[in-house]
Each structure stands twice: as C-alpha cells, then as structure tokens.
Amino acid sequence: MRFPTFKLALIAGTALGLIACSETTSDSPLKDAIEDQTQTLKDTTRPMLTYDTPGQTDDDHLYLEEVLGEKALDEVKAWNSRSLDRLMADPRFAEMQAEALEILNSKEKIPYVSYRGGEVHNFWQDADHVRGIWRKSTLDSYLGDETKWQTVLDFDKLAKDEDKNWVYKGNDCLAPDYAKCIINLSDGGKDAVVRREFNAETGEFVKGGFVTEESKGTSSWLDADHLVIGVDFGEGSLTDSGYPRIAKLWKRGTPITEAVTLGEGEQADVGYWPGVFELSDGTREIVISRSMTFYDSEMFWVPMKDGAPQAPIKFPVPEKSNLGDEFKGQVLLSLNEDWRGFKSGDLVSFAMSDFMADGEITDVNLVYSPDEKSSMNGYGVTKSKVLLSISRDVAGSAYAFDWDGSQWTSEKLDFPENGAVNIGATNDKEDIAFISSESFLTPDTLWTFNTATMEKAKAKSLPAWFDADSMVAEQFFATSTDGTKVPYFVVRAKDTPMDGTNPTLLYGYGGFEISLNPSYSATRGKLWLERGGVYVLANIRGGGEYGPKWHQAGLKTDRQRIYDDFIAVAEDLIAKDITSPKHLGIEGGSNGGLLMGVMFTQRPDLFNAVVCAVPLLDMMRYHTLLAGASWVGEYGNPEDEVEGKFLRSISPYHNVDPNADYPEVFFITSTKDDRVHPAHARKVAKRMEDQGHDFLYYENIDGGHSAAANLKETAKRLALQHTYLLQKLKDDE
After folding, report:
1. Burial status of residue 333 (CB atoms within 10 A of its CB: 0-12, 13-18, 19 or more)
2. Of 391, 705, 706, 722, catalytic
3. pLDDT tens per residue, range 444-453
C-alpha cells in the first residue's frame, strides 16, 4: 500500500494528450523558469479596484457563502433558469446530450479493473446502472470476448433501499482474501463520506461492523480486527482545512470514542493522515503523514509492542518528498527537493529494515533521474518489477525497473509511441499489471503486462467514436514573457483553413503539479471536433509536465508566470491564424477555473467564450472556505502582507471592472461541492450582475467537485457547455 501522503488533485474535467510534433525547439522548456522561489512580489501595473457602493462591497455578497441559504439559492435558481432556458432551447442541446449519453452509457467502454486474489474487480455505470455497480470476474473471462460478471454491490439498489443519494467513492479490502472491506459512500458526491464495513464474499454489510459518521479523512486495515483511522472525532479533531488532525487505532467491537490515539497534528496543518504500510514479508506497519502544507510533510512510523502502539518515529527524509511502496526490501521515495546528492524529480530508494533498526537511513539508491525535458508521471509496484510511466516533452513511455540487491536496472517496454502510456492497476503481490495507451486521435487500449515473463497482451480497447482519420494533432511551443518555451497541442481537421475563423477551445489547468497528458476523449471528438471545432491543450507552468520545478516556478507570488504562459499560447494561436479572439474560447475547472477567472479579467480582449467550472475566484477569502486553507502552499496566504497584496492583484472577484468589456462567461458549479465552495462562482456572478455584465450560470444541486453525480448529469453538463461554445464561437461566423 502506498504511504498515506496528501496530494488531493484540485482538478475537474479530463486530462488530455499528444500525437505528432510539427515543431521542435532546442531551447530548454525550463529556460528562465528555475529561479529562486523566494523572489519577492513585483509591483503590478494593474490598478487595485475598490468597491464602496451598495451591491459592490465584499460584505454585500457574504450571504452567497451560505451553501443552502434561502436568499443564496433564490439567486442560483434565477440564474439557472435564465441560462438553461436559453441553452436547452437550442436544438443542438438535445442532440449533443443524446450523443454524450450514448457514449457515456456505452457497453463498449473499457471496464478498467484492479487485480487481487486471482480476480478482477470493476466499478461500472451505464443506463441500467446510473449510480453504478461493483462487480468482479476471473482474469480469463475478462480477457475473453464476453466477460461473465458477478455483482458484488449494486449502488442503485442500495440508494433506493436506504432512500439515500449514495455516490460510490471506492473501497479498501484486507489482503490476502479481500473479503473484509470498508466501503466509502458519499451523499450526493461530496468528498466527505460514510465508511461502512462490507463482506465481499456474502455481499452484505457487516452487522456490528466498523461504521463512521460522514467525514473527510482516511482509514486502513491493520488486521482483521483493527483499523487505523483519521476522521472527525468531534470538537477540535479537525484542522483549519477541515481534514483530520488526530490519528487513532480502532478495535473491532468497541465504540470509536474508545479508539487509541496514535498521534496528533497541529490545528494549522492541512491534515494528519494515518495508513498502513505492508512490507515484503507481509508485515503490516502503521505509518502517519503529517501534512503541514500541501507540499511539506513529516512522515512517521508507529511501532507496536505487545499489541500497543508506541511513540511515532520520524522518517529522516525531506519534507518535500513522498514515500511509496516497498519492493524487495527497498522503499521508494520521490523527491520534490534536492537531498543527499540527488535532485528534485528523482526517484530513490532505501532499505526499510535499516530505518526500523535504528531510525536512520544509511544508503540511498537512485532508481530514476529525469533530464530537463522529462518527468515521471507515476509508478506501480508488482511482485517482480516496478513499472514507471515517463514522459519526454509530454510524450509517454513505460519502463520496468528491478532491484538486484545492490543497484537498480531498467528496461523500456514496447508500447505505442507519441501518446500517453499510463501505469494502471498494480498489486505488489501479483505479477499481472494493467497499462493503458492512448492519444488524441487513437482510442484507449488497455493491456495486461506480466512482470514475471515481460509479456504484454491487449485486454480491451475503445471503439472509434469520431472520424479521427480526417484529423491531425500537432505540438507547438509558445514563448512566454520570460522566454520560457511552453508546449501546447492543437487537434483539428486536416483541411482546417488557416484564416482565423476556426471555432477553437483552449483548455488549461496550471497547478498542483498536475500534468495534462495525452488522452482520447470520445465526447470531445463527437461534440466538438466533428462539428468543426479546434481543440488546444496548454501545458503551462504550475503543472508537472517537466517535473517539480515546472510546478514550483509558478507558486505563490510567482503565479503570474502561469497566466502569462496561457496568454502566450492564446496569442500564438492567433498569430498562426488558427483562430482569432472572436472565435477563441477557453475552459478550465477548479484551479483551472481560477485560471479562467484571471484570463477574462486580465485579457478579455483575447477570448469570446469562457467556461469557468467549479472555480476558485475570491482569492482573499479562499482560505476560509471549506478545504481552502489546505492550498495556502500553492497560492499563498491572503493574510500575509506580500502574498496578500499579490493575491488581491489577481483575484478575479476583486478585479471585475464595471468599465470593462468582458466576454459572456459561463460559470458551472455544484451546491454539494465540499472542496471548492460554490460561493466562488456565485460571488463573481453576482458582482458581474451588479455591474451589468452578461454571464451564464449553472449550479447543479448534486455532484460534488465533478459537478455531476452520475452519467446523466455529466451528459447534460457536456451538452450545455458545447451548446454555449457553438453559440459563441461558431454561430457568429
């Protein structure tokens, strides 16, 4: 099991990908990006806007932070009604909703699986299973043409029987028989879940078993009768970010109030995360990650003596690093800062036995070190190999690594080039792993890979949902304001005229070291590309496309670099006559929603449509709303003099100008998003309404941070977005 680090991805929407490189550069993509991160705030030339008339002050809009407040919901309902009346009246809406739903409900989707105990397990949704089912099969049956599935748990039936809006949020089952499971159930899609013990053999919830109240947090099996758990234990048990501050050991048959405390974090921490670390010999050890910020953590081992937990012992590793699985006695450690002669971005290892013997780490071994154009996307541990996904200029590949007792060796695996290659489900007790490959125009293929024999076989593949043969995908590099080369991809019809009239959608994220890698999107192809749209993916700084330093170059008061990168891509598209401001739209969600807010307030002249989904927009109060305090390590502290001044200069809510000419923005959020507060979208919409600016707004009551709790809601949201984009970018040709 992976060490419990806190890296909650602030992302909404699909990460996207690569095909062909039509332009290359010998310049380093990190040029001028790797600088001292203690750089102080530069003076901004943008004037600070002030609001002192009724309906304009910040306090006038605080009622919109009341998630279920009557006055707030009245505003939401009025905005929803106005926006839906227009968009759903467009005949293309029903057409695209049907197309999206057909794709989302298709029986030909790849049933992605995990492999444990000789069985494959899958969570599946379609028209007959709106909330989904957890089902299982044998590997042989899964690899055949007609898989014979056995239902483990039907969430539609469970929701109906219990009269609950249950959304499935995963399970944790105890090896080696995987019968004892903890099921995570969310009310309407929230991050907070109810945890309930379930017997996967009988298909029933365990009477008198482990059950928690709704809470954010984590739990892991130590053994059949004990859970290590971090949840809301009552007053004072959560951090300012709303995550667990206390870790406990909970014994079967006892109330949670009698659980034994393993350790405590600080109120100002992001969270205190207990978990279980399984060694190669099957021993299970308690571990804890104390996240002081989103990126800085202390990691501890909790020894057990005579069945009782002892004082935690701190791992002597850097705070900007992540402990991973153990493989052949070596514990993997990914570095986000330089340490002991190794550099940020490296993957290293050390012997767990050495640390457990005396609390020290003597020898550190290099597993993988990227160059300035490469990065590690992720890895998975199997019984015989460690599998790594590695990208170079955002093109993926896969490698198998092995430890011979003194050093690491590697072998590149034979998977399709110039696309994404992702390590899927792995199990450190099994040799069967799953690896997927795809690109913008090549549908996903799921492969099985046997790490003992080093043989791969095609397991499943998607059908072609749109006419990719008539299209091309290209990679370009835009030059940002500081000279940095920023990669981006353009997907278009081969006969696209370069006359500046093409409806073009530019997507970006730019934060939290999240890489936007190649992907095949059937809905994007069907709803947008086949209707003459051009799709562009920007790999701007803030992401992880070139490793930790690509991300760290845009932290806190250096964040304008991220926005300058996105602007540079937009301007490059216009300079190439791929599109023009009249036909250029942009989209982003969550942290990408903040990107959208900054774009339309800083450069409204560049865009004619903005899809701003589940966004952060009030950057002076974000740290007081829901999980916002956990992101101070990314954005900075509004209460700090220097960081607060910078945040005020970019905060979309504080930079909506009554005299500006903005594109009509489409805000999308969810009432039950308990990660990014819906008030961000509400408050900016209200300020724009106060000032007489046009906008559209859709707030789904359910759905959590994805703004959709099931596939029907997802299809509706996609149809609304694309109807809006066509109206704004194509109809006025």
Report:
1. buried
2. 705
3. 999 999 999 9
